[in-house]
Specification:
By secondary structure, the protein is of the alpha/beta class. The protein is 35% helix and 26% strand. A six-stranded mixed β-sheet has the order 6-7-8-3-9-10, with helices on both faces. A four-stranded antiparallel β-sheet has the order 2-1-4-5, with helices on one face. Helix 4 packs across helix 6. The longest helix has 14 residues. The protein is globular and about 55 Å long.
Length: 258
Amino acid sequence: MAQRIDVKDLNIYYGAFKAVEDVSMAIEARSVTAFIGPSGCGKSTVLRTLNRMHEVIPGARVEGRVEVSGRNLYDKGVDPVAVRRNIGMVFQRPNPFPTMSIFDNVAAGLRLNGERNKKRLTEAVEKSLRGANLWNEVKDRLDKPGAGLSGGQQQRLCIARAIAVEPQVLLMDEPCSALDPISTLAIEDLMEEIKANYTIVIVTHNMQQAARVSDRTAFFNLAATGKPGKLIEMGDTSKIFSNPGEKATEDYISGRFG
């Protein structure tokens, strides 16, 4: 079941450098939330804290709370591997496992979780590929390498791999930046189709994409070079793009800076 995320007083560090300061936000379940803002303002950094990917970087740490169903993901005793299983990630460039078949790419997470029953694996792989709107394109070549697919197909394969373990949240870090317009539209259509079952958060530099796919938008910005990134404004996408409350938001969306 899709779940809401509550971020409270989040400060994010790389060693001694504070990269993001005092972020508090609510990310609604069964919706798409877009993070926008100029390069270096902390969008992807915040995204990676939502499933504890940030801390895999040496010296990286966070202060504050990221709550899912009222539980802080950073409490002692919370297993980060279990967090990442529940909160999936799709990266900027498609990254299918190059030596694995299409079938094995999708089944990888299930097998890692201990699933060995061939019938259940087969059913789950088909369900996930259908969920990623890829089944009809690959059903006759499931034994072929995933790396042999087109870029857009590879990205949908990575989405199928992420949703196969039935996460509650799906994070996407610029998932269309390396794709052509047709593949980008396929990913955007897919987000619209699956958001009824997931909480989706997307980082994008494409203002038109944010306006098209998201229900809510969060604008991040830097106060000055070398200063931490901050959340400037967050609200319904229609309002953020038509009548933002902050001049910096309006300037960024209209292309006057960034």
